[in-house]
Amino acid sequence: MADIKTFYLPDLGEGLPDATVVEWHVKVGDNIKLDAPLCSMETAKAVVDVPSPYTGKVVKLHGAPGDIIETGAALAEFEPDPNAKQRAEAEATGHHHGPKKTEAAPAPAPAPAPAPAPAAAKADREDEGTVVGAMVSGNTVHVEQAASIGGVKAVPAVRALAKKLKVDLTRVRPSGADGVVTMNDVKDAAANGSAPLPSPSGRG
């Protein structure tokens, strides 16, 4: 028994569900060669010539002109010629589309250039505020030195206080360092009357 091969309608477009038979280029019983025109099919996009997938005899044609054949449905049956070279089973059969034009993917937009780094702030920017130097006070602090007058060491302020309180510095017991009479010494002497100034001798 002859080996009958069924040819199924290949996808003639990009995912088209079916195609309409426009014209058969052969009839049942005809011998056809591999890749010879088998029929013309009209798709939603164009009329396409479908080549024969085998070299051999046409056994059956599915559909008449005007009939709609679904993609993947039987289109024709063949009895391949065992002595003729056939397309390898692994090879795709059906319409030979030209090299599919692959639309070049749009080149990705170039990454935006990194924003220039902000200029380093000047350390001595004038608008950052005027640097005011340490103001040197013009008020010089005069340290009063305890002067030894009449054998008594005391600063002028203490002497003035002693005079005011009528305290005899020569009789005041100093408590400051190096025998210096302090303010407290004068106040204590005035409070307890331990060092009163001698009363001026008056004429009688």
Give a structural overview.
With 204 residues, the protein is mainly beta. Among the domains are: 5-80, RNA polymerase II/Efflux pump adaptor protein, barrel-sandwich hybrid domain (OB fold (Dihydrolipoamide Acetyltransferase, E2P), Beta Barrel); 147-192, E3-binding domain (Dihydrolipoamide Transferase, Irregular), CATH 4.10.320.10. The protein is 9% helix and 24% strand. It contains two helices and eleven strands; from the N terminus they run E-E-E-E-E-E-E-E-E-E-H-E-H. It has helices at residues 156-164, 183-192; strands at 5-8, 18-24, 31-32, 37-42, 47-51, 56-61, 68-70, 74-80, 147-149, 152-154, 180-181. The strands form three sheets. A four-stranded antiparallel beta sheet has the order 1-8-6-3, with no helix packed on it. A four-stranded antiparallel beta sheet has the order 5-4-2-7, with no helix packed on it. A three-stranded mixed beta sheet has the order 9-10-11. A hairpin with a 2-residue loop joins strand 9 and strand 10. The radius of gyration is 64 Å and the shape is rod-shaped. The protein starts with a strand and ends in a 12-residue tail after the last helix. Mean pLDDT is 76; it is low at 90-103 and 123-143. One of its GO terms (cellular component) is cytoplasm. InterPro entries: 2-oxoA_DH_lipoyl-BS, 2-oxoacid_DH_E2_comp, Biotin_lipoyl, E3-bd_dom_sf, PSBD, Single_hybrid_motif. One of its GO terms (molecular function) is acetyltransferase activity. Its cofactor is (R)-lipoate. Residues 107-117 have a biased composition (Pro residues).
